[in-house]
Amino acid sequence: MIRGAPAAGVVLLLLAAAPTARPQAAAAHGLPPLAVEPTDPLPPLPTQSARNANYTIEARLDTERHQIEGELTLTWRNDTGAPQDTFPFHLYWNAFRNNLSTSARGGGRRAALRETVGPLDERAYGYTHVQMVHFIDDQGEVDVSRTRRFVQPDDANPDDRTLMEVVSPRPVAPGQTARFRVWWTSRIPYGDRGRAGWVHDMNFIVQWFPKISGTQGGRFVAHQFHPQSEFFSDFGSYDVRLTLPKGHVVGATGQQTERVLNPDGTESLLFHEDDVHDFAWTAGRRFLERRGRFEDPGYPPVDIRLLLQPEHEHLGERYIEAARIALRSYGAWSAPYPYKQLTVVDPAWSSASGGMEYPTLITGGAGRFSPPILHSPENVTIHEAGHQFWYLLVANNEFEEAWLDEGFNRYHDRKASFLALGPRGWARRYFGLAGRNNSGWPVVAPGVRLTMVDDALPQLRRSGRSDVMARPTWQYLDTDSWNLNSYNKPALSLHTLEGLLGEATMNRILRTYARRYRFQHPTSRDFITVVNEVTGSDWQWFFDETWYGSGLLDYAVAVREEELRKPRGFVEGPDGAPASVPSPSASPDAGKGPYEVEVTVRRLGETRLPVEVQVEWSDGRVRRETWDGRDRWTRFRYREPVKVARVVVDPDRKLALDVNPANNSWTSENGIPRRAARKLSARFLLWLQNLLELHTVLG
Amino acid sequence: MIRALREGLRAAGRNWGLTLLLLGLNLGAAAALALPLAGLLEADLAQRDAAQNTLTGFDYGWWKEWSEQQSGFAKDFGPELFGVGFVFRNLELLLGGQLPAGLFVSKATSEAADVDPLILVLGAGYLVLQTFLAGGLLGVLRAPESGWTVRGLLHGSGFYFGRMFRLLLVVLAVDSLIFALNIPFAAWVDGRAREAVSENTAVVLVFGRHALLLFALLSVHLLAGYAKAIIVVEERSSALLALVSSLGFCLRRIGRTVGHYAAVAALALLLAAAWALLDVAWPVSGYRTQLVSLVLAQALVGGRIFLRLALMGGQVALYRRSA
Hints:
A: Immunoglobulin-like; Immunoglobulin-like; eight-stranded mixed beta sheet; B: 11 helices
């Protein structure tokens, strides 16, 4: 009798997570062409980096004891322009050494040893222990281990061991090359908190070797590891030999050039890559391997290798397609990807390694239930693949100017996703595991689609006044402010800049910047210089209002409209003397105009940007005004035969930074708000009725 | 089981006025908050482009900003209620211990976002009202051919209210025990889920523990249903003993009682699925489409109330025949 009824539950679940359309191939969407306009005076694209920090690494992974033993030789050329005798090395895993490290004392998703994902146990701790350091130059090899000391330039926390210095017996002159040999052991932390670590059979080994600080502006950029800070280092060539038990699927930066089976049941894999500034790898027994290829006219082909969790097999093609979208769109918006391969890693359940970028290797991340309309894993894959362009090729200083990669990348990933996949849907997940973003059953809200900036504005409203954007990552007020100022605010600023300059000019700026600074370490100043150069005018004012300010941008409009007044009281009589005007009786022309209109545009926030105002009359005429936004308000007055139908501030939505676009418009009374309100409140009514009825289950 | 189902549906059908009455009460209670919400929304949408966007779709940016400004019950309005989202939201609130009146909320296990206290108070009041009416409704369903009058309904309700209220307290105590036991159990299961090798295992564990909690609550509801029937059919004065008798009865006839309950639950699911299909296919913009949508929504709620009455009627019939 109710044979079909059990299926109803399934129907309900399927409808709740109703996937709409599957993502289509990037080519079918509006991604930009690679071809650059012939008039573009673009700088030449460099073919190789300075290669001043080259590593040869031998490492052995003990999967039983979760340890790594390693030896590296660093060949370092002094490009700082000054003699150097003190050399800082990053030992990132010491963030997990104990609960006293600077990272462990901090908050947020990336804080080492945070307890929000579950109780801490002994597995959570890890470290990098440098056993010996030798300095080698043309005068010989010297053991400088005794000069080791830990330094804490950012917060003077004596317990932090994430930055180590060694002193050479003699300075390394500018242009001179020195070598360091370092022997170290590491305990790998459990990977449910930090990006690096092991979970079950999967080892995600990143920021794992003693690594010399990068240089910029004639100095070492040596900072501790903070919960929110990321990384910075110099380019070089990497030759890395990894020895680990047989049976693992290994993904790593660069290309595998050799594989040797050892008699002790291990195997050794050799990887090589040039012109990168880091090396990351992963090894797991459960990975499924899928391969794809990116080929598009004008782009060098790229092999895409996907290491996938078995339970995510159905997401494989979506991961690969997302990587293609990134390679195509970012290649067009900056400069093509130069490496031969890109490895995409789908992290294991329990692993916190998702959503991270390393040279030629990225991590995605998605839940078992991922309706295509939510663009997961597409968005994270596009974002992390996008970091190959912003940070890994144009290698800004992530410690001090995180917005130069995260913000640029967020700006581009939203554009790429929107153009290739369409607007994203919205869902709420139910019955998942606390602290796991992608767990639970996603219930997609029908008819709800987000614009490119919809998910960024709430954070800007919330934390926009907390900090000036342009400051080092560890100096933001809190995690929300860091997130806003590294990702969303710079991205919204770039959307706004594009709105003011036009897309073609913006693309030319970014292409110029990406080519000029490929394999370099640009600063914000360098970017602003490129903007000024390409536009031929000084845009410093824009960055002062946005990147170097902590104000909000919010324009609002109000309209006052009345029929042109007929004179009453006294007017000038024929003889020049005041003459009384009799009160008119009800005129048959009342309500037929003409009309006097005052449009008042107010600047509610502190940020001042020029804005357009569009006034639409009921007879279809349209007029555009401009305002520089310098004062707190401006007013436009009109005398027209018909009424105003609509006024919109920033009609083309150029000012993506406007925190409240809803107050940018004014429409004449038309009954629509009432209908719209009833439509929405009917949903609330239905929910509430069912909620009330549900109470009877408890009685 | 089939017979009980049929008899229950027939009893509820013969007394369809009861469904209308309960729907009216339900609608009135919900409208007490929905109408003010409409006013709030209209005031904010007035003379804005967002109104047009909302009419033809949904303006997420406007809603988000509006929502940030709200306090109280208006904050509980959001796109999670669209489509069949409200079903999941309600289930989340139930399993999160928010119902009734936030009695069973535990910080250790509740992932459900808080709901406004006013809504919880309204829900608690509704539960008491339904407890009051339970005796009267069962009195009508005990002899469905005889019809009903408002006076008779109120008389029956008043007559049994004391016992029904005591039964409610006992049931809430049992539910409280279930939620208390769920705290360590959920922590244990979640711990296993976090450590699972595969996400599939974690999904089974976490969904499974929620399903088990739901099963436990529904089991108590099943027992409470028969306890009410026993109170009315046998004029029992002890709510506690009625619940014990109900337990014995259900255990002895577990196939029939659980099967009947599951059948009604399945019909409710079918109803929700039908709503989901209609809702997706029916675009709402103008007054006419809104009116049709409102009628469909009331048909859904009315259908659900009808099934509740059918469940009660079926349980009375099953008990009288089998006891």
